[in-house]
Amino acid sequence: MSDNDFMKHSTGDLANFPPEVDMNTPTVARIYDAMLGGKDNFEVDRQAMAAIEEANPGTVDLAQANRAYLTRGVDCVAKAGVRQFLDLGSGLPTADNTHQIARRTHPDASVVYVDNDPIVLAHGRAILAETPRTSVATADLTDVEGVLAAEDTQRLIDFSQPVCLMLVSLLHCIPDEQDPFGVVRAYFDRFAPGSCLVYSHIVSDDETAARDFTDRIHSFGTSWGRVRSPEEAAKVFDQLELVSPSSDGTFDPVPVECSTWRNDGRTPEPRPADPEVLIWEHAGIAFKH
């Protein structure tokens, strides 16, 4: 699909296409869409995806495993009784979105998607226009008060009841100077007991691999944070209670490589079993009590 075809496909009218879209700089949402086999991306995003995959073979598989983890995670918390979801950095709509998964358990589930990519707003609103109790908004997720005070958030989310905060493959996009873990704490300070976090974060236990991956993303001119260590990424769970990463609850409640989190037939692994794999998604679900 050419870039002009993409624009027509997304809007049906080039005059209404978001004017702030930069077709020359890749974005995280569109790169991720390309990795998932989506069509809502530009050539520059596909080139970035290819460069990342070349530098770190297996990154595309990692993105797909992370998306499958999202499905299992939303299903888990919905079955635990959570009916409200705030999906930050949601990206472009694809198969098995948060609202579709949650509504298998709760047909009345409320979902607010938030992303800072204008294409997500334009394309997401078009797709979700006829979907009740679901909205998509463009906002800076680090502006906690702004996100929570937004009209659609106030309309769809009851903060006296548990809320699921979705931070799936997102917090590594936030630079340290924006205090990503403090931002998460600020959200949970506003949430009722019983609220929960569905979380994954790109990590490495090898400083060189982490630096090289981070430098590669920054080289595209894309706004991004960094690959963190597993210990750094796990700070997000401070003051929250992790659940077991095994379906039967027999495994200790620790973060694990995302493809092994409650994936039947697989033993949870705190890091990939293959020592040659130096980049992975650290994942876990935790509740506020």
Characterize this entry briefly:
With 289 residues, the protein is an alpha/beta fold. Helix content is 37%, strand content 14%.
What does this structure look like?
The chain has about 290 residues and is an alpha/beta fold. Helices cover about 35% and strands about 15% of the residues. The protein has eleven helices and eight strands. The protein has helices spanning about 5-10, 30-35, 45-55, 60-80, 100, 120-130, 145-150, 150-155, 180-190, 205-220, 230-235; strands at about 85-90, 110-115, 135-140, 165-170, 195-205, 240, 255, 280-285. Strands 1, 2, 3, 4, 5, 6, 7 and 8 form an eight-stranded mixed β-sheet that branches. Helix 2 crosses helix 3 (about 45-55) and helix 3 (about 45-55) packs antiparallel against helix 10 (about 205-220). The chain is globular. Mean pLDDT is about 85; it is low at about 1-15.
Residues in helices, as a percent range: 25-40%
Instruction: Identify the overall geometry.
Output: globular
CATH topology grouping: Rossmann fold
The total number of structural domains is 1
Please count the beta strands (DSSP E, at least 2 residues each): 8
The CATH architecture designation is: 3-Layer(aba) Sandwich
Beta content comes to: 5-15%
Q: What is Rg?
A: 18 Å
Distance between the termini: 48 Å
Unreliable residue runs: 1-17
Quote the average pLDDT. 86
Q: Sketch the topology as an H/E string, one letter per element.
A: HHHHEHEHEHHEHEHHEEE
CATH hierarchy class name: Alpha Beta
Number of helices: 11
